[in-house]
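Duplicate of #3305? Posting structure anyway:
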């Protein structure tokens, strides 16, 4: 196991390095950038004594963009290894500081969505499998397919139209209400929780269908196995057969499926956060990327690559927990 973990760590570092290099190359190759926008703004200032090109050359030198892609990337790696990711060009503060300000909003929304998804999707998937081709199965399947098929922007728009415009229960945008600053800390907590309801419902409805269908498919495969028929032939109750024998083996593929939820928790839901204007890491990263903010974009994408590698390593280790055959091999 130790050798396996060391090999995976080495492979993860390899993938992270070249993944970050690819992202850096793409960002440097964009037709417009943050420094061009700033240079244009400063050149049009009536008090400016420099031309656009002079401002552009100065800013490129300050931010190291006058170097080639490979030297520029290696310089970024050298600073990143020491924990120095620079200052965000768009937000004007250190990248790590901005990240710490917004990451917890995304984490709270996604961890609540994840827990609700587990408590709803897995039981419904098992129920659909045990009642195959019944009305219950068809109803659950239709519900799951609707969640899988609906685009994020469409579902969010429908929810906002119904619950914000028609019923007036929630605000259309934002994380806080208009009287947030005059509230007590406890009232501020509930105000923020109140504004997170629609984003959580949106993410839950979009993600619950995939896990539900995945659980149903794997449970059906397990229920048709020989050892399940043997357990039933021995006179065990259906509840014991499903919950004790079948569900344990269904966990094996579910571990693989849920390994990708870790990057989603910390990576934020970019589209959902943007639609509801929740200042989480997804919304902030979107603002940074479209403005060519290389320091923040590089940190965010590299962080996502590392999270993906860590989640895959955790999934491999969890295989040994839920399947004794992995430990034997």
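Output from current build:
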């Amino acid at each position: 196991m130790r050798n396996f973990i060391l090999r995976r760590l080495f492979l993860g570092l390899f993938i992270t390095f070249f993944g970050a290099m690819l992202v850096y190359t793409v960002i440097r190759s964009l037709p417009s950038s943050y420094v061009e926008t700033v240079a244009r703004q400063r050149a049009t200032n009536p008090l400016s004594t420099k031309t656009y090109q002079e401002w552009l050359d100065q800013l490129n030198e300050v931010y190291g963009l006058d170097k080639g892609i490979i030297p520029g990337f290696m310089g970024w790696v050298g600073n990143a290894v020491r924990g120095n990711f620079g200052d965000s060009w768009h937000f004007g503060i250190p990248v790590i500081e901005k990240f710490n300000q917004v990451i917890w909003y995304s984490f709270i929304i996604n961890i609540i969505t994840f827990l609700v998804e587990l408590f709803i999707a897995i039981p419904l998937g098992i129920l659909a499998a045990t009642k195959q081709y019944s009305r219950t199965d068809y109803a659950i399947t239709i519900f799951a397919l609707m969640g899988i098929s609906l685009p994020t922007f469409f579902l969010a728009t429908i929810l906002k139209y119904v619950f914000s415009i028609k019923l007036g229960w929630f605000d259309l945008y934002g994380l806080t209400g208009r009287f947030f600053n005059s509230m007590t800390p406890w009232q501020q907590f509930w105000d923020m929780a109140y504004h997170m309801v629609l984003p959580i419902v949106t993410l839950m409805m979009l993600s619950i269908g995939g896990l539900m269908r995945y659980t149903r498919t794997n449970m059906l495969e397990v229920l048709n196995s020989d050892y399940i028929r043997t357990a039933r032939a021995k006179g065990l109750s259906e509840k014991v057969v499903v919950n004790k024998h079948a569900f344990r083996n269904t966990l094996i593929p579910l571990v693989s499926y849920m390994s990708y939820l870790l990057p989603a928790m910390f990576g934020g839901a970019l589209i959902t956060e943007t639609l509801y204007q929740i200042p989480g890491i997804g919304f902030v990263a979107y603002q940074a990327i479209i403005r060519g903010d290389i320091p923040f974009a590089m940190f965010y994408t590299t962080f996502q690559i590392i999270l993906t590698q860590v989640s895959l390593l955790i999934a491999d280790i969890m295989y040994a927990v839920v399947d004794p055959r992995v430990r034997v091999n």
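Confirmed duplicate; merging threads. The chain has one domain: 95-328. The domain at 95-328 is CATH 1.10.3720.10 (MetI-like fold).
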